[in-house]
Amino acid sequence: MEKKINDALNQIRPFLQRDGGDIEFVEYTDDNIVKVRLQGHCAGCPGAQMTIKGVVERILKESYPEIAGVEAVN
């Protein structure tokens, strides 16, 4: 599952990088939560939570319905 998540994040990554940010996969928990860390300009951005829920979570859940959610960690 971690490879699938990383493959999906690699598709999202160019959109974040063009704004000076990036995303790092941290963990896939036993309760099907994907934990990620935003980097660069995305870290601490006022729109970071919207990016996590509205973009990253939506794409991951559409691709892999077993994913319960996505959370950002520091």
What's the architecture, going by CATH? 2-Layer Sandwich
Percent of residues in helices comes to 40-55%
**Number of DSSP helices?**
2
Summed up, the domain count is 1
| Widest β-sheet, arrangement of strands | 1-2-3
Which residues form runs of ≥5 with pLDDT under 50? Answer: none
Distance between the termini: 22 Å
CATH classification, class level: Alpha Beta
Largest sheet: 3 strands, mixed
Shape, principal axes of CA atoms? globular
Provide the CATH superfamily: Fe-S cluster assembly (FSCA)
Order of helices and strands: HEEHE
Radius of gyration: 11 Å
- Total beta-strand segments: 3
At the fold tier of CATH, the topology name is GMP Synthetase, Chain A, domain 3
Explained architecture:
- Strands 1-2-3 form a 3-stranded mixed sheet.
- Helix 1 packs across helix 2.
- With 74 residues, it is of the alpha+beta class.
- The longest helix has 16 residues.
- The chain contains 2 helices and 3 strands.
- The mean pLDDT is 94.
- The protein has one domain: Fe-S cluster assembly (FSCA) (GMP Synthetase, Chain A, domain 3), CATH 3.30.300.
- 43% of the residues lie in helices and 27% in strands.
